[in-house]
Each structure stands twice: as C-alpha cells, then as structure tokens.
Amino acid sequence: MKILSVQLKRRVIIGLGLLILVTRLPAQDNLLKVLDDSLKTGAGHSHVTGTFKATRIVNLQTVEAPARGDLNFTIQHRFGQLNSGSYNFFGLDNATLRLGLDYGLSDRLAIGVGRSTVDKTFDGNVKYKLLRQTDGSERMPVTVAGFGSVSYYTIRSPDKTYLDATYRTAYVGQLLIARKFNRIFSAEIVPSYLHYNLVPSAVDKNDEFAVSAGGRIKITHRMSLNVEYNYLLPNQVQSEKVYNSFSAGWDIETGGHVFQLIVTNSQGLIESQYLGRTMGNWGDGGIYFGFNISRNFNLVKRTVRKSVY
Amino acid sequence: MNKYIIFIALIFCAGSSYGQLYYSRTGSIGFYASTPLEDIKAENNQVYVLIDIGKRELAFSSLLKGFIFPKELMQEHFNENYVESDKFPKATFTGNFTGSVDVKKDGSYPVQVKGELTLHNVVKMVELPAMLEVKGGMIMATAHLMVKPEDFQINIPSVVRNKIAREVSINVNANCSPK
C-alpha cells in the first residue's frame, strides 16, 4: 500500500510537471499561430493586380484598364523614320501622335476615345474584363478581356469623292489573354479580327486576322522592359507591302504617371493601323522612336467599406 | 492521496481561468499618411485579433491586400511597390500588456502594450498605450501609434517622397467577444 502510494506520488509529480510545461509554452506565438490559422481558412482568393503598368504594352492593348471612376489621359507620340536621313534629323523633325481618354465605368468595363494624326483618325473603344486572374488557390490562371474598337478617318481626299463615312470606317475585335506569372514576368497573347469597309484593291481582304504576343519584365519596382510582336496572317494585304509590327519599350512609373520610351516599325497608333498597315521595316531602318505618357486622374473616390479580398 | 487530487483539481481550475480569450475577425486598422500634396489613407476591416486577458497577451494579424484605399491606383502601388504584399502578405503584432482588466466589471482600462510589430519582413519592438474597454462581456480594444515607413525598409522614391507623410499614423480598434 505504501509502495503504491509512492508510485502514485511520482506519477502525480510527473503529471504536474507536464501540465506546467504545457501551460508555459511560448504563449504569444501560440496566439499568433491561432490567428494565422484562422486567417488562412478565412481568406478567399484575390484578384491579381498590376499585370502590366499601362493600358498598352507599346501599341498592343493590355488587360489593364482604368479602375472605376478613374480617367486616363494618354499621349502617344512617334517621331519620323530613323532612315529618313540627316536632313530630317533621323526622323526627329516629324511627329505623329494620338491623344486618348479612357474612363473606367466599373472595375471591369472601360471606354475610350482618341484622335490620331495619321489620316486624322478618330477612334472609340470598349474594354471589358471577362475573367480576372486570381492568386492563392489558383482558381483562375489568366485575365481575359474583350476589346472592341471603331476607327474613322477624316483626312480630305478631293480626288476620291466616293469616300463616304462608311468607306472610312474600320472595326477591330480582340481577345486579350494575359497572365502575370510572377512579380517580374507577365505575358499576353492576343488574337485579333479586323474589318476594313474599304481596302485599296480587290485582291486585299476586307476581313483580316492577326495574332499578337507580348510581355514585360520588371527591372525595378517602377520600371519594366516590354516587347510585342504582331503577326498579320499572310496573303491578306497584296496591293501594298506591309510588315509585321515589332515594338520594344521601357516603362517608367512615377505615382499617377507612366512614361514609356519605345521603338517600333509602326507609325499608326490604333489597331486598324499598326496591325494591318505597318509600312516600316526593321531591316532597313524603318523604325520610329517615340513615347507614350499616361496620367491617371481619380474622379470618383471609392468609399472605404467592408474590405473584400 | 486526497491532498493530491485537490491539488490537481486546483491546477485545472487555474488552467481554466487562463482561458479568458477574446476574439475578433472584424478588427479595424486605419492608416493615414496624408500630406498637403496628396490625401493618403486606407482601412482594413478584416483584422484578426486575439486577446488573452488572463495572461495579458494579445495578437493582431491582417492581410495587407485587405487595406482598401479610396483610390484604386494607390492601392495597387501600395501592394506592388511599397509593402510588396505578394512576397510578405501579412502585417502582425504580438505582445504583452501591463495593467489589470476586470472582465466582470464594465469600464475603461488603460494598459501599456509592448511587443513585436512585423511588416515587410521587418520585426520591430514597439511600446504604446492602449485602451481596453469592457462592456457587456465584450472587450473593445483601441490604440494609436506612429510608424516610419523607412523603419520597415519600405523605400519611397524621392519623386514622391514629399507626397507621403514621414510618419504614418495608425489607428487600431477591435471589438472582441469571448472565444
């Protein structure tokens, strides 16, 4: 009986020791661990942001658009061709530009208008995000946006009296498919359909198709290098020698501005011009230096309500 | 024999008094970094909070992506360029407080909190006064502190330096219920 009691005593002491040990574990870390566990189960997926810095890689539309209530003012500027000689100061004597305004009606839908120097062209466009890439559980691997544009050129052609409004109009439909692979690298693939109401000759197609690819590599938080290649499917334009558009750019972001320094073989700045009517040839110096500047204006402030992520 | 059993029972009783945990998943952290040049503020209303009254310990945890800015672009820059929320998704605080709190008696109990604030992969010791307000079995915790972005290796480029306050004012409040 006495031996039993000694054994019991020992067990009780060990038990007590364990109990004290358990209650004396690093408690703060426990609290934080409990929180982190519940944070993990409570957190849903969130939309990936900042796939690209600007609404264009260089000329090609990106899946980015102004947020709801944001107005984006864009100046796209191209000098003349590099091979135009020292008399034209290697292109710097000439300039073409497009002024554009884009507005976010919702976080998915944006509309825009623009006016380009080339052929004195007006354009209007709509961009709608159909799918948005999410992180975390990887539910949606890509962002997909539909882009539609109508362009109408107004340059006077007294010798072509038949050029009415219909003939001057062209339409473009694009599917922008992009993925932000990591914080540095994003890529995009874009199939395009173009329709020109009037083409130069009967051998040219009114309906054209193109496939574009582009991407960016961030070199710092606020800078990235971009390239894009726009492949116009062959034998669609016969009467003129057209080239595929290749462009490279360097993005610099400072607060609400994005500056893009670029080189490209396209003079045109809208889809119906650079996709189907690129006349410059990289091989013989038909290259344009230029820049895009965009400035974001916040017109409608979001009310800070229940946060959602 | 009986003595031991009573002793164990006592220990367990003491153990249960340790479990005065108060919890919230809707705590709120707001920060303000406005300057005359730019209005900068954000709020996160999904902060997880745990307070152990018995041990005088508390912990906060929040996802940086949960901070909502009135300007969407500002929110994107906050996540992409400043706190790098894809690399370091959370801001946390864990620490102790001094001062007594009687959860059975409604009232305001000022406490002094000391602990580690973790943000942008930098851990910093902070000490600040806070208020724990007991009301109807709930505890409302409020606190205010100032932090410098540079202390957390959040680099602000010189172009925008004057647009962002040198010291960011942070308000914390959480209404915690017994867990």
UniProtKB/TrEMBL annotation, chain A:
InterPro entries: DUF5777. Residues 52-297 form the DUF5777 domain. Pfam families: DUF5777. This is DUF5777 domain-containing protein.
From TrEMBL, chain B:
Residues 70-174 form the Lipid/polyisoprenoid-binding YceI-like domain. Pfam families: YceI. This is Lipid/polyisoprenoid-binding YceI-like domain-containing protein. The lineage of its organism: Bacteria, Pseudomonadati, Bacteroidota, Chitinophagia, Chitinophagales.
